[in-house]
Amino acid sequence: MELIVMNEKVTNAKVDTFINNLEQWQDEFKFLRKLSLDTELEEEFKWKHPCYTLNDKNVVIIQDFKHYCALLFEKGAIMEDKYDTLVQLVHYFNGISDSSYVQLNNHLDEMTIFSKNAPSFNRTYTIPFDKIAEISAPVILCGPIGKDAHKVGERVYKKSAFEELPIILETIIKKHFV
Which residues contact residue 95 at a Cβ distance below 8 angstroms, ignoring those fewer than 6 apart? Predict the structure, then answer.
């Protein structure tokens, strides 16, 4: 395994190759990689994707999908709390959040086809595609670990949803957006 140094951190050359060969999401992967390397995490290449570990435990993996890429946390709570995010943890409702309403990945003409084929579109609900195209915001998808998504028995792990994820989100927001 060939390792290189990036910003005084050891990085994995396989991750460089992977990112350079991506057909889409290169900029997003570079941003998420930098975000991950700004922590105490070590970079590895597992399951054909960049994976970041702490004490040989998988913490986060960067995954590409057709319409988005994601930073997927497996054990985010084992990270050091150097931003004092644990000082005031407050309960909040961890409900559904559809980030597809802030970025449009298709041309507006294709959305006309969607609206003509969606049952009761423009009668019971509308989607402001033109406004979404104007926003075109980058998206970081973070969510709790769960089981049986979109099935009758769907559930999330309580610790992931109400302890780990709020800390991870607050850390990302404070470090990169405030």
Answer: none
Q: What pTM value is reported for the model?
A: 0.45
* 151 in the same domain as 127: no
Same domain, residue pair 69 and 33: yes
Domain membership of residue 155 (yes or no) is yes
Residue type, 59: V
Q: How far apart are the first and last CA of the chain?
A: 37
54 is in which domain, residue-wise? 3-78+140-176
53-111 pLDDT, tens per residue?
888 888 888 888 877 788 777 655 545 555 544 333 333 334 445 566 677 767 777 77
- Which CATH number fits the domain that encloses residue 11? 3.90.1150
C-alpha to C-alpha distances, 55 to 8, 35, 41, 43, 138, nearest whole angstrom: 19, 18, 9, 12, 31
Report angle CA 87, 170, 41 to the nearest 5 degrees: 95
Amino acid at 33: R
